[in-house]
Design goal:
This is Flagellar basal body rod protein FlgB. Helix 1 packs antiparallel against helix 2 and helix 1 runs antiparallel to helix 3. The two termini are 23 Å apart. The model has no long low-confidence stretch (mean pLDDT 89). This protein is mainly alpha-helical and 122 residues long. The protein is 57% helix and 3% strand. It contains three helices and two strands, in the order αβαβα.
């Protein structure tokens, strides 16, 4: 018996990636004073599209981490650190909005499933 929907799996992956984005942003912010630290990130949209197309279920992707890469085009300070708190603040705000959207869509998905379950009792 299938207990999840394709949309529920996709939203779960979306929320997992959003959570990873928040962790990356927090790590970048925490290292703003670390000499030589380079800002890291990942291609959210590209990784999400790849996960949707790979055909693996949500359980098959559990624990999967997005590939990290240094962010190019940022100005480095004399100590070699290139973390911009302005950029990281925007990244965090974006991730928070994405997470809120994902949870609202997931709530709607579960509501639809519950409506279908209770349809028989009416």
């Amino acid at each position: 018996m299938q207990t999840t929907t394709a949309m529920g799996d996709a939203l779960g992956r979306y929320l997992d990636l959003t959570s990873q984005q928040m962790q990356v942003t927090a790590r970048n912010m925490a290292n703003v004073d670390t000499p030589g630290f380079k800002t890291q990130g990942f291609d959210f949209e590209g990784v999400f599209a790849q996960q949707l197309n790979d055909g693996a279920g949500a359980a098959g992707l559990e624990g999967m981490q997005a590939p990290m890469q240094d962010v190019d085009g940022l100005v480095a300070r004399p100590d070699g650190n290139n973390v911009s708190m302005d950029r990281e603040g925007l990244q965090l705000a974006k991730a928070q909005m994405q997470f809120k959207l994902g949870t609202q869509l997931l709530k709607s998905e579960f509501s639809t499933v519950m409506s279908a379950i209770h349809m028989d009792s009416k």
